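Hi there,

I know you've been waiting on this one. I reran it after we fixed the sequence typo, so this is the corrected version. Both the input and the resulting structure follow.
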Amino acid sequence: MRTMFWATALTTTCLTAGPVFADVTPEEVWASYQDMMTNMGMTPTAEVSRDGDTLVVRNMVYSMNLDMGEASVSDTTTVPEIRFQERRRGTVAMWFPEPLTSVMSAPTEPGTEEGDTVETRSTVTYIGEAIVSGSPDDMLYTIEDAAMTMSSEPVVVDGMTVQPGVTGKFAGISGTSTVVRKGDSLFSNMDMTAATLTYEVDEIEDGEGSTVEAGFIGNTLAIKGSILLPQSDSENMLANLLGRSTMDVTMTMADSSSFMTISGEDASSNMDIRAATGASKLDVAFQEGTIGYDVAAGNLNVTVAGAQIPGGQVAVSMAEYSAAFLFPLAASEEDQPFSAKIGLKDLILPEIAWMIADPTGQLPHDPANLRLAFEGTLNSDVDLFDFETLMALEEESAEEMPFEVKTLALPEIFLALAGATVAGNGAGHFLDQEPQVPGGMPPFAGKLNLTLNGVTDLITKLSSTGILPPETAMSAQMMLGLFARPGDAEGELVSEIEMTEDGAIIANGQPLPF
């Protein structure tokens, strides 16, 4: 459904949540709707007329064009009709009697001649109405128990389906959103819920007699947050959305389930994949050219069944998955922060995996845990949402990175697996020197601190089970002896490694001979 994102984002905002001190008219609500499209770089055309107490907008068309260097992507949406009806107490009801349609056109390859394009056709059907109140510059949209269906047709190129048809349905949509004008900018504060989201993929044929079916359902969805859209630069809409807009939105879901089924004439190739999650949360933010997200999902369970699976079925579960990312997209004379992290909590592997890895049963089958975090600063000379600049970087002569990493830190390193743990942290900076390899990273100076428990015992067990050849296990033990020293507890090793600015490597206070 990504082909409908911007076309439907506007419609969804208009049909969701301001004071009610003043009256609004259908004409004022229609003008506010146009302002939102203009701030997103779209100029609508439409036929407007009055039908008693209702303003009727027919045959509205608006387009978006993204210039991606040698490629240009266009998305044109047609709205057969919108109605704005006067209601009691100075409010206006707004609804869409017919589905919206959207056509996205993109070249099959950058730089191809006109006509060598692929089209994605989609529709949006909205059931329900929004009640608009407030004043012309401060409107409140309220909806209750509405529904939305978004469908895209399959994309076929040279007789091959490159994107299957997809249908997404929101049911039980309720909540509020505001549309407030602040100078040339528009601000929206939203608080919306939906009872369910279903996502169905059309049946896919692989050309060899097999078919693929897939679907998803999420329950009790909520979205809260704010969006600020400045006046758009229609010639560089992507820069306006990613470089100048501000968004801070949190989305939550109580639980979800999904499936993928592969079936065909040969039953031995059939496969059924099922997945389920508990409570999930996603935070997304754009601010001053920086993009970030933070996601967490609890109680993940995945099962894979099929004739080719040993034992007929395997299951993997996890108490929580988490990930986060922060990266500056805009150029800046000052150093800018970036960060990333990933976490796997209580990962339980299927017994068949342990049977293969540990046939003699010597290793503890404890749940695995991983936490890894990066952060640092960088300096960027280019806007990474400028496609002309990015295309130039892809040329053979462009050997340098579009940004320069200045500092790098590892706030947390933690891995627990098969009875052994590795924990630590580190930090350092890149030197103002030429890289040893053209286009590579410059020399680095910093420190890394690690505490290892049970690693020596784990290496011994891996060698005895045959997973590690004896010579590999011996080399690993020698490396531990070189880089680590005994800690205070039994089975504990401590490693303090420093890379100095003159290129030396010091392990536990002793310079290494290389």
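Quick highlight: Residues 1-21 have pLDDT under 50 and may be disordered.

Best,
R. S.
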